[in-house]
Design goal:
This protein is α+β, with helices and mostly antiparallel strands and 173 residues long. The chain is built from seven helices and four strands. 46% of the residues lie in helices and 14% in strands. Helix 3 runs antiparallel to helix 6.
Amino acid sequence: MNILEAIKRRRSIRRFLGEEIPRETVMQLLDAMRWAPSAGNRQPWEFVVISDEATKRRVAEAAYGQMFIAEAPIVIVVCADPGRSAARYGERGANLYCLQDTAAAVENLHLAAVEMGLGTCWVGAFDEGRVAEVIGAPKGIRPVAIVPVGRPAESPPPRPRRSLEEVVHWERF
């Protein structure tokens, strides 16, 4: 599959088959994530892979009760280390670049998962402090995304997109 096809095939999956994901596959996903671009190559990301049922449930509860998260064979909590970015870029690095960089890593995860026949969902609605506590995040490390990963048990149709004419501006707004 080419990258444009993967981009168009990606869907938010909220129902998963109970199949275990081999560790080698998980490692390939994590490797795809670490190859994401980052400002100044600071790589301000940390990835917490969760397969323990009780921990997945606690993460789902901290995500305002989105229990589909706990149904995935694995859950990856993507964290940002603002200090890594701030060391080079100051406040803008801490408040923006580290978030952009982790977002790029999450997108790599989604696209690699599609190519491997896996489903994912980008979950951003959660209590950051509670998730940090569940995963034992060190002080200053921010959970920014929760991504359940598994074989999809659903095949949602594409969601509508705004037209290019509506969103593209040439030279000026």
